[in-house]
Amino acid sequence: MRFFAVSITALVAAATTVLAEEVGIEVTRAVECERKSKKGDTISVHYRGTLQKDGKQFDASYDRGQPLKFVVGNGQVIKGWDDNLIDMCIGEKRTLTIPPSFGYGDRAMGPIPAGSTLIFETELMGIDGVPAPEKIVEKSASSVADKATEGVKEAVKSKIAEAAEAVKVTVADTDGDGQEHNEL
Questions:
Q1: 72 FRET partner, CA 20 to 30 A, in 1, 44, 47, 63?
Q2: Is residue 16 pLDDT above 50, yes or no?
């Protein structure tokens, strides 16, 4: 039984660590469109980057008046951008909270200290080969909230299923003879 309790504690700790290391995405302006950004697209993004710990701005394309143009999902930018600027409409805005493992990690980069969590306000300005919409049509707040809630529900459901499966394996590994089986 002690092994079972230790296993559950380890599973909870592992799940917490995994969840803590995800990029936070807040859609601050949801818009409707026919074509969203996808891996391999050349996109243009305006952004403002700040440090989470003190709010200090370290860079902003808005200040230069020129969005950053790059191929998304191709390793040209930090992983937090590569993975989370996909599936966006032109005109959509997102705030990304990027932990070090999806940013610059344990290395300093110019004004960014090593191990920094970064906050980026982003706005998709264009996708090469996709005509800009004549008018940006914002989605209603309720439809955005419903979609976000569904995403969270699915993520939680998946983590619970993983934990339940691990518990089944652990319980199945005990045969009732009082011995711990540590073969896993």
A1: 63
A2: no
Catalytic annotation present for 41? no
134-138: long-range contacts at Cβ-Cβ below 8 A with a sequence spacing of 24 or more? 136/31, 136/90, 136/91, 137/31, 137/32, 138/29, 138/30, 138/31, 138/32
pLDDT at position 153 over 50: yes
What is residue 134's DSSP assignment?
S
Please indicate whether residue 47 is annotated as part of the active site: yes
- Render the burial of 147-184: b for 16+ CB within 10 Å, e for the rest: eeeeeeeeeeeeeeeeeeebeeebeeeeeeeeeeeeee
> What is the C-alpha to C-alpha distance for residues 42 and 129, in angstroms, rounded to an integer?
9
Contact 106, 114 (CB under 8 A): yes
Is 25 catalytic? The answer is: no
- Name the token pair of 22: 């995800």
> 59 catalytic, yes or no?
yes
pTM of the complete model: 0.68
